[in-house]
Amino acid sequence: MRQRWIEKKGPKCVPTTGLGGFAITTPDSIDLFLKGGLRYRAHLEDDCPSIAFYSGFYIRPTEDGRICVGRDSIHSRAGGQCEIVKIRTLVPQR
Q1: Can you tell me the distance from the alpha carbon of 7 to that of 3, in angstroms, rounded to the nearest whole number?
Q2: Consecutive 10-residue runs of the chain (94 residues): their mean pLDDT?
Q3: Nearby residues of 6 by Cβ (< 8 Å), 6 or more positions away
């Protein structure tokens, strides 16, 4: 059975050192998996669909080692980039 997730209030920043993986689950966002089981959804700006990231993406390292809303972007390996406008915490639906 497939697990469903509910979005809750999230942090303004997520540490990059704990990133373990990602998934594209909605047209306007990318789910980030952290080591230890935490899961976040990074919502992208309105005119930037996440489908462009199926070929892979990267995040430019920052001095503070975090991905932050309104500051950082996700860069497509194909050349585009999208600003992160919101980060939400994902919790399993019961």
Answers
A1: 13
A2: 89 92 84 93 83 74 94 84 94 91
A3: 90, 91, 92, 93
Q: Residue 79: what residue type?
A: G
Tokens of 8: 């809750």
DSSP state of 3: P
Whose CA is closest to 86, among 56, 52, 45, 38? Answer: 45
Q: What is the per-residue pLDDT for 94?
A: 83
Which sequence spans correspond to the domains of the chain? 17-92
C-alpha separations of 8 from 18, 19, 49, 58, 71 in Å: 20, 19, 22, 25, 21
DSSP letter at 26 equals: E
Q: Are the beta carbons of 88 and 8 closer than 8 angstroms?
A: yes
